[in-house]
Structure formats: structure tokens, C-alpha cells
Amino acid sequence: MTTPLDSGAPPPVPNPGRRLLLTSILASYASSFIPWSLAGAQTPASAPASASAPDAFLSVSQVITGRTSLDPAQAKRLYDGLVATMPSFAEQLGALAAFVASNKPAGHDLQAALDTAKAPFAKLPADIATAWYIGVVGSGAAARCVTFESSLMNMVVADRLKPPSYAYGPYGSWGRNPLAA
After folding, report:
1. Which superkingdom heads the taxonomic lineage of this protein's source (predicted)?
2. What is the pTM of this model?
3. Domain ranges (residues) in the chain
4. Which run of H or of E encompasses 127?
5. Residues 137, 85: contact at Cβ < 8 Å?
6. DSSP H stretches of helix in 104-175
């Protein structure tokens, strides 16, 4: 008994349409594992502020702070605070996200690249870094404290130091009961 492979007939030719379909399914599945910050997710500069603007803020913040894991809830609060204190923040953020996606500078080279390009939004990374590390958005009378305990200045040293509180004794304790006489 002979099988089709033993019949001496040439092997079937692969179907290019089927190969293309299988390749595209495999590529879309594999791309689902790439974090958006590495994939260059961005909000175009001409797009209005929308639900994806905090995502662009988070991905730009990861480049600026050099930290891959930032709290999305805190990012949303900082974004809202920056939008409230800077009227053109959403447009500048879109332009900065597009700049980062097209130039792909390292975090420590970003400011130099912006200064070299004479970008009109070159001051924005400093404002974003201040918001993340200090927890304050805006300046002067418009300054708003968005976070303190979970700001990066406290998180970076959290293994050794605790953020100061109103207690003048050890962290989280009172020297004596203030109501006792």
C-alpha cells in the first residue's frame, strides 16, 4: 500500500494567504506581551486630552524618573494636578510623548536632547520630575500638594528612612500625650 507521500507526486505548495494569516495572528499575540511604555504608546500633539492622556503621562514619567513601576492611581492624581495648574499641559505632554517616541532618548539624556532641539516644552520634564519626587504641582500661590507619603523622594529611601510626621519622637510615635498635664 502506498501513501500520498510515497506516490512520487511533488509536495503541496504552501498557501501564501494562509501563511500571512497565521503570521499576523502570531505577531499580534506576541505584541500583547510588550509593555506600552516600550512599544512607544503616545498621544499625538494634536489630540485633545482624553482618557489616554494619563497613559501617555505614565509612559513619559517612566522615562523621566527611570522607574519602570509607577503607581497608576498616583499618576492620575499628578496628571490632574498638572492639568489644573498648567493650562497647556495636555498639549505639551502630547508633544513631549511624540518627541520621546521618535527620538528614544535615555532618561538621563532627555533634557539635553530637548535643549538641543530647542523644544518649546523643554521645561516640562522638570515639572513632571518635581511632581513625582516632591509631590507638589505648580509653583508659588498656585502650588498644590498632591502626595507626600508616597512621593518618590520618600519611596527611594523607604528601606532606611521614613517620611517625617508631626511626631517629634521616633517615627509614628508621640513623645508624650499632648493632652496629659
Report:
1. Bacteria
2. 0.60
3. 37-125
4. helix 124-134
5. yes
6. 110-117, 124-134, 152-155
